[in-house]
Amino acid sequence: MAGARLRCAGRLLVCVAVLAIPGRAMAEPEPVTSETRQVAIAARIAGDDNRVRLVMDFERKPDLHLRFLENPDRAVIDLPETVFAFPEDALAPRGLVTSIRYGAAGAGRARMVFELASPATMELVESTEEAEGSIHRVVFDAVAVDRATFAEKVAETIWTDAGAGPRSLSEASLSDTLTIVIDAGHGGIDGGAEGPSGSMEKHITLAFAEALKEALEGEDGIRVAMTRSDDSFLSLSARVRRAREEQADLLISLHADSIRIKSLRGATVYTLSDKASDAVAQSLAEQENGAEGIVGASLENAPEAVAAILVDLARTETRVFSTGLARQVLDSFEGQVKLINNPLRHAGFRVLQAPDVPSVLVEMGYLSNPEDEKLLTDPEWRRSTARLLAQSVQNYRKTILAGRQ
């Protein structure tokens, strides 16, 4: 692809091919030869809701790494660079396996992803030579297990190996520093919501962003950047680009919307999902995503030409980390900041759609509620809540560091 480079996804190091971002050098892939390239000659799958068998034939003995992921449940097989020479319909989903994706996963690597209908183990049960050594056959069995057993498999998964395999966020950075990009919602001509007393969302989010920046800068191992530091308009896609340009480990987008239900008040934390968790989440996502229309901005659903399988995988990995941060935020708010019922929600907020940057949208409260408006405009409440949010980021960072041990 002309102008493409390899970008390691949001420090997750799930590599995706994307259009080059100005100011960054193009990565040079390692040369691949016929001696290092693997060929998958044939594949077949059979089974039901309780057990599925996968059989694959290779030109030579493959170097396989099996890993597991949750939300959704998946088994992942990592391989050296592999040509998948079998027919596309050879691996049709069935039984326990609801989706199968495979393809290149960066320079010198390939990946197969098996999405599971329910928790299941997947074990290599056989590796044999056939046809006088000209074919190397491997057999995997996927077997349904309970949630606790699958969670143990996920916890045991290691995303590093002696070669150049993908790594998780917890092992990605060479330093212990996390880069946090704070996004103050709205700005400029886009004022956002307005409270009963005339408070404007764009001013509230910027003031809170500045308080959060100050609180985070007092924490060890944190570098902070902001999408805007004044009353200027930024498109949603520009906010996402800003986070990626900063090579953000996390994006925190701050909002204080209005809603028709005037009695609704309290904080909410949103993560990205293709389908909204409820009608309130859907309404707010539509409201936020439509904000650019007031200045005729071009909305970019997919601003980069990417290999769909890799972007989907990167986005799935990123959502796992986003959910982890969201839970840390809610834990820090519990008992200190009023929360709405079911405060962890999800919807298709465009500002959260970077495939490679873990992101959350923090709805600090609702300007449509007079009590929330009073708190949102209170400097002391702002400082104390910013400190709690900063502590949740530090707690999240510590869980990442602990994963390196």
From TrEMBL:
<feature type="domain" description="MurNAc-LAA">
    <location>
        <begin position="240"/>
        <end position="394"/>
    </location>
</feature>
<dbReference type="Pfam" id="PF01520">
    <property type="entry name" value="Amidase_3"/>
</dbReference>
<feature type="signal peptide">
    <location>
        <begin position="1"/>
        <end position="27"/>
    </location>
</feature>
<dbReference type="InterPro" id="IPR002508">
    <property type="entry name" value="MurNAc-LAA_cat"/>
</dbReference>
<dbReference type="Pfam" id="PF11741">
    <property type="entry name" value="AMIN"/>
</dbReference>
<keyword id="KW-0732">Signal</keyword>
<dbReference type="GO" id="GO:0008745">
    <property type="term" value="F:N-acetylmuramoyl-L-alanine amidase activity"/>
</dbReference>
<dbReference type="GO" id="GO:0009253">
    <property type="term" value="P:peptidoglycan catabolic process"/>
</dbReference>
<keyword id="KW-0378">Hydrolase</keyword>
<dbReference type="InterPro" id="IPR050695">
    <property type="entry name" value="N-acetylmuramoyl_amidase_3"/>
</dbReference>
<dbReference type="InterPro" id="IPR021731">
    <property type="entry name" value="AMIN_dom"/>
</dbReference>
<protein>
    <recommendedName>
        <fullName>N-acetylmuramoyl-L-alanine amidase</fullName>
        <ecNumber>3.5.1.28</ecNumber>
    </recommendedName>
</protein>
<dbReference type="GO" id="GO:0030288">
    <property type="term" value="C:outer membrane-bounded periplasmic space"/>
</dbReference>
